[in-house]
């Protein structure tokens, strides 16, 4: 393979764009003091997410995960919807820019494992898709995919030796 780092970067960017596309309808802008925009989770998503989670939990054959969805996620649905939306943004931006890629891949791994556990029993398509996303996150994490063709590489080349030790943990 010629230039594998480039192809990992292409995959990283495509997966990042997928995460940003997934969050497109979950966020809207609010304005602090009527002037400064900031992202907020839409009331539509906050209202929809508990219904979807209940559907995922209803017939889920993974007992401990079904209990987690029903006992933890559903009673705190607004919090989990907010965490999901902001998590998807963080993963998408991190992967597209190659910024804090290790941390973005770790959050993405958590999200994709949860999506897979919630839906794996529904269809073969769901199983394959989430296995592929999980595999991509593991690959980005261990390959440190942002260090080639990403902001992580630029930051690491300019950081002091002391800072590099800590930055390498999240990049």
What does this protein look like?
By secondary structure, the chain is mainly alpha-helical. It has one domain. It contains eight helices and two strands, in the order H-E-E-H-H-H-H-H-H-H. The protein has helices at residues 4-23, 43-58, 63-73, 77-97, 101-119, 124-143, 151-158, 161-170; strands at residues 27-32, 36-41. A two-stranded antiparallel ribbon has the order 1-2. Strand 1 (27-32) and strand 2 (36-41) form a beta hairpin. Helix 1 (4-23) packs antiparallel against helix 4 (77-97), helix 2 (43-58) packs antiparallel against helix 3 (63-73) and helix 2 (43-58) packs across helix 4. The radius of gyration is 18 Å and the shape is globular. The model has no long low-confidence stretch (mean pLDDT 91).
Low-confidence stretches: none
Tell me the total number of β-strands.
Answer: 2
User: Which term fits the overall shape?
Assistant: globular
Q: How many helix segments?
A: 8
What order do the helices and strands follow? HEEHHHHHHH
Computed over alpha carbons, the radius of gyration is 18 Å
How many domains would you count in the coordinates?
A: 1
Strand content: 5-15%
Structural class: mainly alpha
How are the SSEs ordered, and which strands pair?
Blueprint: H1 4-23, E1 27-32, E2 36-41, H2 43-58, H3 63-73, H4 77-97, H5 101-119, H6 124-143, H7 151-158, H8 161-170
Antiparallel strand pairs: 1-2
Properties at a glance:
single chain; 8 helices; 171 residues; mainly alpha; two-stranded antiparallel sheet
């Amino acid at each position: 393979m010629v230039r594998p780092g480039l192809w990992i970067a292409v995959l990283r960017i495509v997966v990042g764009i997928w995460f940003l596309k997934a969050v497109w309808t979950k966020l809207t802008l609010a304005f602090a003091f009527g002037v400064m925009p900031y992202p907020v989770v839409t009331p539509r998503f906050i209202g929809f997410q508990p219904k979807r989670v209940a559907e995922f939990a209803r017939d889920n054959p993974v007992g401990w995960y079904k209990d987690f969805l029903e006992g933890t996620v559903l009673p705190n649905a607004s919090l989990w919807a907010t965490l999901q939306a902001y998590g998807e943004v963080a993963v998408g931006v991190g992967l597209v820019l190659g910024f804090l890629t290790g941390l973005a891949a770790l959050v993405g791994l958590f999200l994709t494992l949860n999506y897979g556990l919630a839906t794996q029993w529904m269809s073969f398509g769901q199983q394959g898709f989430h296995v592929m996303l999980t595999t991509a996150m593991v690959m980005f994490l261990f390959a440190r995919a942002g260090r080639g063709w990403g902001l992580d590489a630029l930051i690491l080349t300019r950081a002091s030796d002391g800072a590099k030790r800590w930055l390498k943990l999240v990049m």
